[in-house]
Amino acid sequence: MKIVIPDDYPPVISGTKHLEELKRLGEVVVYNTRPESEEELVERIKDADVVVNIRAYCKFPERVLEKARSLKLISIFGAGTDNVDLEAASKLGIAVTNTPGASTEAVAEHALTLMLAVARRIPQIDRSIKEGRWVRGLVTQLYGKTLGIIGTGAIGSHLAKLGKGIGMNVIAWTFHPSAEKEKALGIKYVPLDYLLKESDVISIHLRLTEDTKGLIGEREFSLMKKTAILINTARAGIVDKEALIDALKNGKIAGAG
């Protein structure tokens, strides 16, 4: 069995015990650079029985899958499956697996870190100190502020706990709100427009689908407070990039991470 890791960059599995465990299962080929083209990706995986996709960088549309004639399994190191054409994979008899929950705490903590970094202006203050300047400016205290969470799967739910842990009021929106989860987390589900208007920090935790692509655009930014902070540790495509740039340049929101 040939196992190919087409994009371990920056390295995640190289040099770890997990790689040694994989080698017990068959021939393992690890690439420590990103493929520069779709053709190069095909060249890397064309003889593979199994592909372990460490990063979301590599995309697997039908035209790529069709050329990997030996491929039986794509194992995704993470929860998101939007980089694989699942319908095509099913048609071609290729199983696709993911690891939901494996990075729940890590991503939620990263979202909290970004919230604090933007609110406390840590990058700007760090830069000014290194330049020998002491900049006195207002920073935002998150205690007592409202955290709006868009998507309350495992990561969004864990962030709700972290937000409440630092004294934030937590509201949320999701496609399928649950009264049981609302009670368990001590949050309040609200309409999306209400969340955008009332939140001091908005954190996105959704999968990228046709329903969520471009969910946050010009209209949604116009609803936000000028002091609001937007955090997106989900997929970039959920937020309209041009609308985000415009919102930051023109002071429609205070910051993003």
Topology:
Layout: E1 2-5, H1 17-23, E2 27-30, H2 38-45, E3 50-53, H3 62-65, E4 73-76, H4 86-91, E5 95-97, H5 104-119, H6 122-130, E6 146-150, H7 154-165, E7 169-173, H8 179-185, E8 188-189, H9 192-198, E9 201-204, H10 218-223, E10 229-232, H11 241-249, E11 255-256
Parallel strand pairs: 1-2, 1-3, 3-4, 4-5, 6-7, 6-9, 7-8, 9-10, 10-11
What would your notes on this structure say?
The protein is of the alpha/beta class. It folds into 2 domains: 2-97, NAD(P)-binding Rossmann-like Domain (Rossmann fold); 104-256, Rossmann fold (3-Layer(aba) Sandwich), CATH 3.40.50.720. 35% of the residues lie in helices and 16% in strands. The chain contains 11 helices and 11 strands. The chain has a 6-stranded parallel sheet with strand order 8-7-6-9-10-11, sandwiched between helices. α5 packs across α7. The longest helix has 16 residues, at 104-119. The model has no long low-confidence stretch (mean pLDDT 94).
CATH fold-level assignment of the largest domain? Rossmann fold
**Whole-number count of domains:** 2
Please estimate the helix content.
25-40%
The helix-strand sequence is EHEHEHEHEHHEHEHEHEHEHE
**Multimerization state:** single chain
> Which structural class is indicated by helix and strand composition?
alpha/beta
Distance between the termini: 42 Å
Strand order of the largest sheet: 8-7-6-9-10-11
The low-confidence parts are none
Give the CATH level 1 class of the largest domain.
Alpha Beta
Shape: globular
What is the name of the CATH architecture of the largest domain? 3-Layer(aba) Sandwich
Compute the number of strand runs: 11
Outline the biggest β-sheet.
Answer: 6 strands, parallel
Number of helices: 11
Strand content: 15-25%
Output the CATH homologous superfamily of the largest domain.
Answer: NAD(P)-binding Rossmann-like Domain
Overall mean confidence score, pLDDT: 94
Radius of gyration from the alpha-carbon trace, in angstroms: 21 Å
